[in-house]
Design goal:
- The chain is an alpha+beta fold and 203 residues long.
- It is built from one helix and eleven strands.
- It has a five-stranded antiparallel β-sheet, with no helix packed on it. A four-stranded antiparallel β-sheet has the order 5-4-9-10, with no helix packed on it.
- The radius of gyration is 33 Å and the shape is elongated.
- The chain starts with 6 loop residues before the first helix and ends with a strand.
- About 2% of the residues have low confidence.
């Protein structure tokens, strides 16, 4: 037997098919929208994190106040006369910088005898290390610059057995101070051509 489909039944079937397709499209669009929203949120979070890290790398820097050298004038020492046996770099926060803990910093000393990488003497690492002392400190922190008025000395002792030799006249040194946030401060100086009759010099 043949079953005849009326126009109304045919239109009803078409309508149901269209409704199913429409619902499927809505579901697909909803899933796609959810994926896009999640992806956008993730990308926004990552971009904010990257922006903050980049900002810290730019802003959390040190600023040199003055660099001085102590001249050896004691002929009985093993250090040659008229050489610089200690270098002191006074630093403060750069404008806009946040808290900087010098105990977490690493320093590259690039001098006449090559390159040395130093850590703070509280780190427990072996080898030549740098020391810090507070010149002006607004709180009790021993190594942390957290105020624009803070001043700390970074000290390099060249009389130690594992340090480079004392600096002679006319020698050039570059110091790169790398903070934990990834910011780098470069300080370059050349010792005076004459160190005789001096106990300390500005570098």
């Amino acid at each position: 037997m043949f079953e005849f489909i009326t126009d109304e039944e045919e239109r009803g079937q078409v309508g149901i098919g269209t409704l199913i397709v429409f619902i499927a499209m809505v579901l697909v669009a909803a899933i796609a929208a959810g994926v896009l929203i999640n992806t956008a949120g993730f990308l926004q979070s990552k971009s904010q994190e990257t922006g903050q890290q980049s900002s810290k790398q730019v802003s959390n820097r040190l600023q040199e106040v003055v660099t001085t050298g102590s001249v050896n004038t004691n002929s009985s020492d093993s250090i040659p006369d008229d050489t610089i046996e200690q270098v002191n770099v006074t630093v403060t926060q750069a404008p806009g910088a946040g808290e900087i803990d010098l105990s977490n910093a690493t320093i590259n000393w690039i001098g006449p005898q090559g390159t040395e990488t130093l850590t703070h003497n509280s780190s427990g690492e072996a080898g030549w290390q740098f020391n810090t002392t507070a010149v002006k400190n607004t709180d009790d922190s021993d190594t942390v610059l957290n105020d624009a008025d803070d001043r700390f000395n970074i000290e390099f002792d060249l009389t130690l057995s594992d340090s480079p030799a004392a600096l002679g006249e006319g020698e050039e040194v570059t110091i790169k101070i790398n903070t934990m946030s990834g910011a780098t401060t470069s300080i370059r100086f050349t010792t005076p051509e004459s160190l005789g009759q001096k106990e300390a010099v500005e570098l």
